[in-house]
Amino acid sequence: MAIILVTGACRGLGYETARQLLAAGHTVYVGARDPQRGRAAVASLASPQAHLVALDVTSDESVAAAAALVRREEGRLDVLVNSAGISGGFVPAEQLTAAHMQSVFDVNVFGAVRTITAFLPLLRETAGAVVNVSSGMGSLGLTTDPDRPESTLASVPYPSSKAALNMLTTQYAKLFPELRFNAVDPGYTATDFNRRRGTQTVAEGAEIIVRLAAAGRKAGTGAFVSRSGPVPW
């Protein structure tokens, strides 16, 4: 069984991903920016294989401390799931500022860079994997296809951040061919993230994340996939 860390695991897709991985017998580190909410999440998961790790992806110090804790307690990490993310809310394009963009990128993009850099030594020791939780809204192909619902939505911060995360995935996959870097599109899932307006359950949304996290070498690398198959970049 694998040692897996899930960022943003207190609620939504991150929590459900942790729950499903634990049910499959894996050891899961529940990354939580808020320790109190993290303790509540671990208690709710009710598994001896669930472990809390304080982890604020916007803080270099927090991420470094989390990596040190995992090394100290486990001595290895097989999979990093970058699930932490924010929508940034809705800001009219006329009022959008660079500072607002930066706040979204700091979590969705720079946060992934921080965790990958901090946990890379552990992942290289196990020839491990990184699963980046992206979105169909980060796909240039889907958001410009008139037959896809993604093309009917117009926003700047969140889709741009997920497109950037996708590019990180392809570049890391080339830079570290001994590891596995993949991006996933969970689909339009009903979570607090979208005020429960998603068309699929959180269990359905987490399915592809869990599948790649648990796939081992069979997962391949440098892919962008959803439950139904490959997603256009």
Task: Explain what the structure shows.
The protein has 233 residues and is an alpha/beta fold. Helices cover 43% and strands 15% of the residues. The protein has an eight-stranded mixed sheet, sandwiched between helices. Helix 1 crosses helix 8, helix 3 runs parallel beside helix 5 and helix 4 packs across helix 7. The radius of gyration is 17 Å and the shape is globular.
Distance between the termini: 31 Å
The H/E string reads EHEHEHEHHEHHEHEE
User: Total number of helical segments?
Assistant: 8
Identify the strand order in the major beta sheet: 3-2-1-4-5-6-7-8
- Give the structural class: alpha/beta
pLDDT below 50 for ≥5 consecutive residues: which ranges? none
The helix fraction, in percent, is 40-55%
Shape: globular
Please outline the major beta sheet: 8 strands, mixed
Strand content is 5-15%
Oligomer: single chain
Gyration radius (Cα, Å) is: 17 Å
Average predicted local confidence, pLDDT:
94
